[in-house]
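Following up on my earlier thread - several people asked me to post the actual chain instead of describing it. Fair enough. Here it is, all 292 residues.
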Amino acid sequence: MSALWRETQGVPGVHAGRLTIEDQMFDHLFRMSLDLNTILKDWPHENRAIKVRKVLGLDGRQKLQLRIDLGVLQMELTGRPDGLHPHGCESLLTYHQLRATRAKARNEDYALTPEQCAELQQEGIQYYHRYLSLFQIDDFHGVVRDTQRNLELFDFVDAHTERDELSWTLQQFRPYVLMMNTRAKASIFLGQGKFPEAIAEIRRGRDAIAEFFQKSNFPELAAKSSEIHFLEEWLNEVSAKRPRSKLELMESEMETAVAKELYERAAELRDAINQLKAAEARADVRHSAVNG
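Reply from S.P.:
Thanks for posting it. Predicted structure:
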């Protein structure tokens, strides 16, 4: 029986227990709102395509939606993706971090149970869904935030469990999270036209993944890592697109002048190159003094 069914006993022209026209309309709209097909048919799923959009929630705040084969995942843009506050904290990780800090202040150890590790892993999956979605809409700062948060989760679980198998259930995803964190950071630099910084970031990410494998029980996996392979290919691509600096252009021109036996021009370029290098060295010294 509909939740909108109301008693009409004694109302002229209306039979007892029968819905009015208005009630029938509201009841129909209520039942329609529970059927996700009204949403999904206008936003079809596509195999191998990650479809993401922002929508305005009933609370007036923007939400993030990820289309999956059987429906839609809706997430908050900040805080815990499902909007919950476990034990009054922003996240379950924050809750355990606070407890661990209090235990340390009492000179006590803080050990996670297998059930707590599983709960933390489930929470980490929420952040995975969100940073994957944010990457699709070029919200790279959000990706950096959420990937860094999951890396922090991996470190916390590793530090508070003595069972290697519990730690590895999360650590096995570290190469992928490091790759996504690196892609987001480098993409921010590329958006600002900072190619040297982007290249340095990609190298750092690649090396961090390689170091993880070397320190793990499976160092041979580094050679098979799809994350390392991707970053190396991307590094070559970005390096090829990087605009050459003024110094590089002058050095190339000097080499051409020497090859054509234009020695006077080559000498002029050599002197100009030396002056430019000296000026850059002085600038580096001043920068170090200011930030030292």
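The first strand starts at residue 51 and ends at 56. That should answer part of your original question.
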